[in-house]
Design brief:
The chain is an alpha+beta fold. It is 21% helix and 39% strand. Strands 8, 9, 14, 15, 16, 17, 18, 19, 22 and 23 form a 10-stranded mixed beta sheet that branches. It has a 7-stranded antiparallel beta sheet with strand order 4-3-2-1-5-6-7. The protein has a 6-stranded mixed beta sheet with strand order 12-11-10-13-21-20, covered by helices on one side. α1 crosses α2 and α3 packs parallel to α4. The longest helix has 20 residues. It is globular.
């Protein structure tokens, strides 16, 4: 099929440039009601994401037209031809200023360790299920339902410049719902997590944490009025905080005037009350499901420093927008590494703060940096007192009003495609009490 698509694109004189990203996926899937297997199946798919570009010569400024579309294995040659002609017409309505395309290059062969070792995807799925249900041993709580997906994805990129890259990835996804019954109250919680290798302890720990959260939710008191308390973000919320900063250095946002970042932009003032941020972008990262040595435009990715000691060092992003801003073309990344800081547990004992365990949602405005979330579960720490579990109410704040006093924990943690401090301590955050 790939050869057929390439032949049709090459033979069409209206097409100036093209690229294809094919994805051949195999997935073994298990669906459980409690611990009873309800359904299992193996799914195989192959699809082709095609980008075509047209060239329009203009007296004032040359233009590039672009259209992206999908081709599926079930399509006939005539259907593919018809699709291509249809998309060529669409290119006329999406004209951009001229830019060049990635040159032919080679990438070093990556001998990626297969995520599940010698296990085939069916065996790996049942091993993951056994690990998940090792956590299902509480009297008042249980795993209500779960879905397990073990996937192999063979990705190939081919373009009109002669680039031809191949990369194979394996990953797992588990979705589960837990129930906890206590004090005439029932709490149901949902969680979805991904993994790059078959770590049974990791899988069991994810289920344990969700069941523990269910139990603590029932024991929690409504969030009181909190003045003078800082907030300690953990896990996914730490990840989202730093991805926001990385995205602000993206040429696409800057070109569209959604960010005022530039090279040498100073995010933080250097003072004794702040941990300066260093953020790196990496093409591949051990235990990440997002690793790719090249991006969707065929740009070969290399490690770059995005922010160093609170100062923007490099911008990154799509080929066209990087060229429009006259910046180096680094490509688009999905793996993030942030340095640890100096915050210790001993210092936290001296603070009044609220540790966020779970929010109903955590939204950071991509333009302003404002953030907010409703508290599902948090731990309130007051000097000299035991922690108090709270629920309800909400938090709100702004990334840039907190960044000059941010403290980064002195231990790191990996959350899929992010490695960074286990937690971050912010001030200038508002707490709204539960109604």
């Amino acid at each position: 099929m790939m050869d057929k698509i390439i032949e049709l694109l090459k033979s069409n004189p209206k097409i100036y440039a093209w690229n294809i990203m094919s994805s051949k996926k195999e997935s073994y899937q298990l669906f459980f009601i409690k611990q009873e297997l309800d359904m299992n199946r193996k799914v195989s798919t192959k699809e082709y994401a095609v980008n075509i570009f047209t060239f329009k010569e203009d007296k004032k400024k040359n233009k590039i037209g672009h259209s992206k579309f999908m081709i599926y294995s079930s399509m006939s040659e005539d259907e593919i031809k018809e699709k291509i002609e249809e998309q060529i017409k669409i290119c006329e309505y999406s004209l951009d200023d001229f830019y060049t395309f990635p040159k032919k290059t080679t990438i070093k062969q990556i001998n990626k360790e297969y995520a599940f070792g010698s296990q085939n995807i069916k065996d790996a799925a049942f091993i993951a299920a056994d690990a998940l249900f090792e956590a299902d041993k509480f009297d008042k709580g249980y795993i209500n339902s779960s879905e397990i997906f073990i996937n192999t994805d063979e990705v190939r990129f081919v373009d009109s410049k002669g680039n031809d890259f191949l990369f194979t990835n394996q990953n797992g996804i588990i979705e589960l719902v837990t129930s906890w019954n206590e004090k005439n109250e029932e709490i149901e919680l949902y969680k979805c997590f991904e993994f790059d290798h078959l770590d049974t302890n990791f899988i069991q720990r994810q289920a344990n944490e969700l069941l523990l959260e269910s139990s603590n939710r029932i024991k929690a008191i409504p969030t009181p009025s909190l003045n003078g308390y800082k907030v300690l973000l953990t896990k996914e919320y730490v990840k989202e905080f730093f991805i926001h900063l990385a995205n602000k250095a993206k040429t696409d946002l800057i070109y569209n005037r959604m960010s005022d970042f530039y090279v040498s932009y100073k995010l933080q003032e250097d003072n004794e009350n702040v941990d300066l941020i260093t953020l790196k972008l990496e093409p591949t990262m051990k235990n990440s499901t997002k690793s790719m040595p090249f991006d969707k435009e065929g740009i070969v990715l290399k490690k770059i420093v995005c922010i160093e000691n609170g100062v923007v060092k490099n911008l990154w992003g799509s080929n066209a927008k990087s060229q429009y801003l006259q910046k180096p073309v680094y490509g688009t990344y999905s793996n993030y590494f942030v340095n640890i800081g100096t915050l210790t547990n001993e210092e936290l004992v001296e603070e009044n703060y609220v540790e966020i365990v779970s929010l109903s949602d955590f939204i950071i405005d991509s333009l302003t940096g404002d953030f907010a979330g409703e508290i599902r579960l948090a731990y309130m720490y007051s000097k000299g007192k035991e922690k108090t579990m709270i629920t309800g109410g909400s938090i709100s704040g702004n990334v840039y009003k907190s960044i000059n006093s941010i403290r980064l924990f002195n231990e790191s943690e990996q959350i899929n495609n992010f490695i960074g401090p286990k937690s971050i301590l912010l001030d200038n955050v508002t707490f709204n009490k539960a109604k």
